[in-house]
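During the reporting period the student researcher (J.K.) took over the structure-prediction task from the postdoctoral fellow and processed the backlog of single-chain submissions. One of the processed entries is reproduced below for the supervisory committee.
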Amino acid sequence: MSCGCNGPDDPIKPQGIRILDVWVIGPLMLYASTLLPKEKDLTRFALRSFGLGTIVYNARNYMVIKERQINRLSASRTSPNERTPDAPEGL
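J.K. obtained the following C-alpha cells:
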C-alpha cells in the first residue's frame, strides 16, 4: 500500500494507522497486560514491552514523516531563484 507521501515508489503506512497504533493499539496492549494474573509474568512483560514499543515506534515515525511533509511543502513554496543554505555552489 502506498500513499505517495515519500514518492510514488516508497510504500509507507498511512498516518491515520500510526495514530491508531499510538492512541488505541499500544494502550490496549498495556491495559491487557494489567488484566493478566500474576502467574503470567512473561506474557505480561511481553504485552507491556510490545505496547510501549508500538507507541514509541509509531509516534516517532509519525513525527518524522510529518516533518518531511512540512519540509517538502515549505520547499515547494520557495521560488526556484532562492538558494537553500545547504545547496552546492554550482547550482
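The committee noted the following: The mean pLDDT is 84.
J.K. will present the remaining backlog at the next meeting.
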